[in-house]
UniProtKB/TrEMBL annotation:
Family: Belongs to the endoribonuclease YbeY family.
Coiled-coil regions listed in the entry: none
Protein's gene: ybeY
Pfam families, sorted: YbeY
The organism's taxonomic lineage, starting at the top: Bacteria, Pseudomonadati, Pseudomonadota, Alphaproteobacteria, Hyphomicrobiales
UniProtKB keywords: Cytoplasm, Endonuclease, Hydrolase, Metal-binding, Nuclease, Ribosome biogenesis, rRNA processing, Zinc
A GO BP annotation: rRNA processing
Cofactor: Zn(2+)
Subcellular location: Cytoplasm
Name assigned to this protein: Endoribonuclease YbeY
Cited Gene3D superfamilies: Metalloproteases ('zincins'), catalytic domain
Length: 169
């Protein structure tokens, strides 16, 4: 089982406390890492891989999104791989950063009629897969990434978040 060194930063007081977020992160990212290691044969280095999770708000993620993606609007999750990684290739010691915005997660969870924790879990898995080079720009890439997300979430006891939808493009 791959080892992860998960670093948590909470930038908005509306998030659950750091202990709760840490426990959730370890469970979710641990399951995702274990799944891609065994099912996708994703190699991991022999030492723990560091991943940083930043729990912030819409204002902060909007600035990051504008600076790094040229999109001046808030979004739910952004991922920043520390090194370029292709799925199936061994990552370096630092996987990268995942940034998640509180208000957007809340709003989307309500719109999707899902619990906040279930939607947050999905976004954590989604962001984590981006750190390994998975993407959803092209339809075939989106189908592969969404299938992985769905299978990982099923292992965590959650339903298919994409049921009845076209792949993300």
């Amino acid at each position: 089982m791959p080892e992860l060194d998960i670093q948590i930063s909470v930038e908005d007081e509306r998030w659950p406390d750091e202990e709760q977020l840490s426990a959730l992160s370890e469970r979710v990212l641990g399951a995702a890492a274990g799944f891609i290691a065994t099912e996708e044969k994703q190699p991991f280095p022999p030492h723990p891989c560091e991943v940083s999770l930043v729990f912030t708000d819409d204002a902060a993620i909007r600035e990051i999104n504008a600076e790094w993606r040229g999109k001046d609007k808030p979004t739910n999750v952004l991922s920043f791989p520390a090194f370029p990684v292709t799925p199936g290739k061994t990552p370096g010691p630092m996987l990268g950063d995942i940034v998640i915005a509180r208000e957007t997660v809340e709003r989307e969870a309500l719109d999707l009629e899902k619990s906040f924790d279930d939607h947050l879990t999905h976004l954590m898995v989604h962001g984590f897969l981006h750190l390994f080079g998975y993407d959803h720009i092209e339809t075939d890439e989106a189908e592969k990434m969404e299938a992985l997300e769905t299978r990982i979430l099923a292992r965590l006891g959650l339903s298919d978040p994409y049921a009845g939808q076209d792949p993300l493009v």
